[in-house]
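User: quick one, sequence for these tokens?
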């Protein structure tokens, strides 16, 4: 049987004349940080001061000695970042130039000093650029000339910390006769039968050539076997009445262990392979209709409105992201009623642990191939690397039931059309051949049961603008960049692949990242940790459209920017969900951060929840009430994404600014399963258009929708008055209940738990209370706190 030796210990990093202890998996930055050779790159201005790290060559070394009775020993790297020359005992083993591939080298009988010498990513990119010529790029860094995590070179939310290192596990594999080289389980479902076609490839030693091998496959009580005389075989497994895997909210997520065993002609075991698979069908409906061209995911025959988020690498140094951290972050996503995670094309193909958790939680995965915001040369040496990378990762990931879509790139088709690339390219290649040729061929060959789309945004054809909202996927960035969030209501895209609004991270995150700094929107550290072009200007303009812009009051500015972020994203989702099935999904930019930064995230770089996170949980719930302006007046939309009919009595109240009831009406609303009911708001309860003194409240089944006819700064809202109580939770010293009772209208009351203690969390985001209403906020991790502590952590909207 194959033996495996993990090579995690004994590595050194050459730093000048020193040899530092190195962690594998890891990277140069984390090793230097552990050794105390550099300060934390995430703190203050250290990012800029450490730019030299990415411009140097680095060498990892360890002694390699092994004794085995097997015929063959392979040195296997799951990930090398990025351009490396590998030698053993001074003799070359091979050269790599792709962070996103696995590499295998025959070291049978060889021992000595193992060295992995990494060139500077900048030097490698320059060498490739000298061969291919210049290509346009949104950012002034050379990410398109090297197959490396593009956001390593900086992004409008990420630091420029260009890494090098052995970033995924490395091991020795000792084997004889033959080993399993790759397994492609193609899973299909036809009525009440599941089928798994297991495509198996093997590699043989010289002595194993021509020998008959036995292969056995088992899943869910089904078994198949074959005799293999060549290097490839396909086994078919038939499963009666398999339980179907569903996205969360649509059913359960049963997973089945698929076992593959390889043995020789005498039955001696040689190698094995195991994965969990799920039975389900997935289609992408891109049919034309009276609204344009659709983009609707269909799982097990059920059409789905995708409640999505974009995912970026969870750390600028991805080797630090553990399986436990994946589980924490993805469990948070599921807790916000998210059912789709898009792995964005400027990052990485995530570790298997990421997809394992998505399988378990029912989080659909939209996987980008790794191309983002740049024109990519299609010549060698890149083309061969791109093909090998795509084949490697399609085979690695295709067993995961959660993976529902392959996407060719992020924004490059759009960029070619709108970002002045075409003239600059002058006919040079730019990636179209990858997105419309190579990648769809690879997916069709290797993973034919999953849909592929050429890019996001993409209208499906050059006959339409790539970012046409009426066709395919759409990225909505005029809002935030130039317009108020109310403009989300101006269109109904078929599928919103990206949209979002910025806000700073939690105060505790800022204080950890910027120690000793007097916080202000334009303080030096805040600007270092704000990467978006005119980011603070856009934040200020976003606030100023709705509130008086606070001058010299950082705490209020912080509250208002976080509140506007939550409101903006909620406004878009509520509008687009109310137009299902024309709009079939929203994918918020973005769920997470890779360091402490002002960004579009719902969870900041220290893992703290922004108010946006709580709003996502509300607006992505199975059932949602929303009031939407329409050409003929206000419309009440009851969005029902659950599997059961929703019939409810909605209480509509027109109230004066002080909360006094002016008029009330009750509507019976019925929404069928997976549908939206849109009902006109009776004119007698609708506030007058542009009224500064009236607002509308809609309540049903514990859900609430609000409509204010004018911006907050124009509304005659009295100063908020409320009472605060703090109640201990019996048996839990780390928990308290904060009870707030409103005496006036209290708009968007927000408790910032990290102001009570850095590790504190609460269970609610912004809430609007009418006079006499009470809310209970559970706070965990704060320790004993008093009323004054809580009042200092509470913020709300006032007329001032």
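Assistant:
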């Amino acid at each position: 049987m194959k033996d495996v030796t993990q090579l995690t210990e004994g590595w050194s990093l050459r730093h000048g004349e020193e040899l530092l202890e190195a962690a594998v998996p890891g990277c140069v930055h984390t090793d230097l940080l552990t050794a105390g050779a550099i300060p934390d790159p995430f703190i203050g201005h250290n990012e800029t001061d450490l730019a030299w790290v990415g411009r140097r060559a680095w060498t990892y070394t360890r002694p390699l000695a092994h004794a085995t009775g097997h015929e063959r020993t392979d040195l296997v790297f799951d990930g090398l970042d990025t351009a490396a020359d590998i030698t053993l005992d001074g003799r070359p083993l091979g050269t790599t130039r792709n962070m996103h591939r696995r590499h295998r080298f025959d070291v049978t009988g060889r021992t000595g000093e193992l060295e992995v010498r990494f060139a500077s990513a900048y030097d490698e990119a320059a060498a490739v650029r000298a061969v291919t010529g210049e290509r346009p790029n949104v950012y002034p860094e050379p990410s398109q000339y090297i197959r490396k995590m593009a956001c390593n070179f900086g992004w409008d939310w990420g630091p420029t910390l260009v890494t090098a290192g052995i970033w995924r596990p490395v091991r020795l594999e000792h084997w004889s006769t033959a080993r399993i080289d790759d397994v492609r389980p193609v899973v299909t479902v036809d009525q009440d039968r599941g089928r798994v076609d297991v495509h198996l490839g093997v590699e043989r030693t010289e002595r194993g050539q021509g020998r008959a091998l036995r292969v056995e496959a088992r899943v869910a009580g089904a078994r198949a076997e074959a005799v293999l005389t060549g290097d490839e075989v396909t086994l078919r497994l038939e499963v009666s009445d398999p339980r179907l895997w569903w996205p969360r909210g649509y059913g359960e997520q049963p997973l089945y262990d698929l076992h593959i065993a390889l043995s020789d002609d005498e039955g001696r075991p040689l190698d094995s392979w195991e994965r969990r698979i799920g039975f389900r069908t997935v289609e992408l409906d891109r049919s034309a209709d009276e609204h344009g061209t659709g983009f609707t995911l269909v799982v097990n025959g059920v059409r789905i409105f995708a409640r999505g988020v974009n995912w970026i690498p969870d750390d600028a140094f991805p080797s630090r992201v553990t399986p436990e951290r994946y589980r924490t972050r993805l469990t948070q996503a599921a807790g916000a009623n998210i059912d789709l995670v898009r792995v964005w094309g400027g990052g990485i193909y995530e570790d298997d642990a990421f997809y394992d958790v998505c399988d378990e939680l029912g989080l659909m995965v939209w996987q980008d191939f790794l191309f983002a915001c740049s024109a990519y040369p299609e010549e060698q040496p890149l083309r061969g690397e791109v093909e090998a990378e795509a084949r490697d990762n399609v085979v690695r990931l295709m067993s995961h039931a959660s993976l529902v879509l392959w996407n060719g790139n992020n924004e490059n088709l759009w960029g070619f059309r709108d970002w002045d690339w075409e003239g600059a390219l002058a006919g040079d290649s730019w990636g179209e051949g990858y997105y419309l040729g190579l990648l769809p061929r690879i997916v069709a060959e290797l993973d034919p049961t999953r849909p592929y789309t050429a890019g996001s945004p993409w209208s499906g054809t050059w006959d339409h603008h790539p970012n046409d909202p009426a066709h395919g996927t759409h990225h909505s960035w005029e809002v935030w960049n130039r317009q108020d969030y109310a403009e989300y209501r101006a269109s109904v895209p078929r599928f919103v692949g990206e949209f979002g609004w910025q806000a700073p991270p939690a105060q505790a995150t800022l204080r950890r990242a910027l120690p000793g700094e007097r916080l202000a929107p334009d303080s030096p550290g805040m600007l270092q940790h704000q990467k978006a072009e005119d980011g603070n200007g856009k934040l200020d303009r976003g606030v100023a459209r709705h509130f008086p812009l606070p001058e010299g009051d950082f705490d209020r500015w912080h509250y208002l920017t976080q509140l506007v972020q939550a409101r903006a994203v909620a406004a878009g989702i509520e509008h687009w969900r109310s137009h299902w099935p024309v709009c079939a999904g929203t994918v918020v930019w973005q769920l997470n951060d890779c360091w402490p930064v002002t960004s579009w995230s719902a969870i900041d770089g220290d893992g703290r929840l922004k108010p946006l996170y709580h709003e996502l949980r509300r607006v992505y719930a199975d059932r949602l009430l929303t009031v939407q302006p329409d050409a003929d007046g206000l419309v009440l939309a009851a969005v029902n994404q659950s599997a059961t009919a929703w019939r409810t009595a909605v209480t509509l109240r027109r109230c004066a600014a002080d909360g006094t009831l002016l008029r009330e009406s009750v509507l019976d609303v019925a929404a069928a399963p997976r549908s939206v009911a849109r009902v006109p708001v009776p004119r007698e309860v609708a506030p007058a258009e542009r009224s500064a003194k009236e607002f509308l409240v809609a309540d049903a089944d514990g859900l609430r929708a609000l409509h204010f006819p004018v911006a907050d700064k124009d509304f005659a809202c009295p100063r908020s008055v409320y009472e605060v109580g703090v109640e201990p939770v019996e048996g839990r010293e780390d928990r308290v209940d904060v009870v707030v009772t409103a005496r006036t209208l209290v708009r968007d009351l927000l408790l910032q738990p990290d102001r009570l203690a850095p590790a504190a969390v609460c269970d609610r985001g912004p809430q609007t209370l009418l006079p006499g209403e009470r809310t209970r906020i559970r706070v965990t991790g704060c320790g004993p706190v008093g009323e004054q502590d809580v009042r200092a952590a509470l913020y709300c909207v006032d007329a001032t």
